[in-house]
Amino acid sequence: MEKDPFQLSAIVAYYAILSLPALIVLILNIVGSIWGRDIVQGEILDEITKALGQQTAESIRLMMLDRGDEETSIFTTIIGIGTLLYGATGVFYQLQLTLDKIWNVDEEIKEGIWTFLKNRAKAFGFILILGFLLLTSLVITAVLSTFVNRLTLWFGDWVEAIFAVDFIISLFFIYFLFAVLFRFLPSRRIAWKGVRLGAAITSLLFLIGKYLLAYYFKTMEPGSTYGAAGSIILIMLWVSYSSLLLFFGAQFTKVYSDRYLTDPAKD
Q1: Which of 31, 36, 81, 109 is 20 to 30 A off residue 137, Cα-Cα?
Q2: Quick count: other Cβ atoms within 10 Å of Cβ 10?
Q3: Are 45 and 60 in contact (CB under 8 A)?
Q4: Per-residue pLDDT tens digits for 69-120
C-alpha cells in the first residue's frame, strides 16, 4: 500500500486505452498474416466478450473494421507501429517504473538516452511476446477443438469434462507471461528462483479474478451507467484490476526473494 498501487494501476489503464487501436492493428498484421485475419479477429473478440461483455466486444469490433479489415498500406503500417511505440510501449514503460519502485532500483540506473531507447525496445519486445502467445494459443485451441469434436462423436457429452484442459492451458500461458514480466521488465534482473512462485500465485489469482470480473460485468452491467463511454470504462476497470494483481505478485516476489534467497538478483 505504501507504493500507491491504485494510482499506478490507473496510469497503466490510461496508457492501455491509448495503445488499444495500434495494438489491434499490430496483432492483426503479425498474427493474422500467419493464422488468418478473420480467425484472429474472431478469437480476440470471443475472449473480449467473455471478459468484458458483448457491448465492449462490439465497440472493439468496430475499431477492427475501421483499422484492420481494409488492405493495410505501408504508410498505415508505419503509422500503426509509430502509434504503438508512443502508446503500447508506454504501458510497459509504466509497468517497468512500478516494478523498479517495488525492487527499489536506484534512479541513476535509469538515466540517459540509451537507457530510454533500451527500455522502449524492451517494451516493444513484450508486444511481440503477446503476439507469439496469441498465435500459439490459437494453434493449441484449434487442435484441442478438433480433438474434442472427434471424441464427442465417440463418447457423447461425457467428453465436455475435457474443457478443464482449456483452463490449464490458459493458466500456463498466463504464468509464462507473468514470469517473463517479473524476470526481464525491471531494470534489475531477477533470479528465476524468486520469479517462479510469484508468477504462479499471480497467474492463479488472475484467472480466478477474470471469471469473477466477467460475472460482475455480466450481472451488474456497470458500463451502462456511463452510456457511450461504458466500453472505455470497462476496459480501464479490467486493466486497472489486472495491474493491481500484477503489482501484488511483484511485491510478493520481492519479499519472498529478500527473505528466502541470498541474492535475489543473481542466478
Answers
A1: 81
A2: 14
A3: yes
A4: 455 567 766 776 676 667 667 777 888 888 888 888 776 555 667 777 777 7
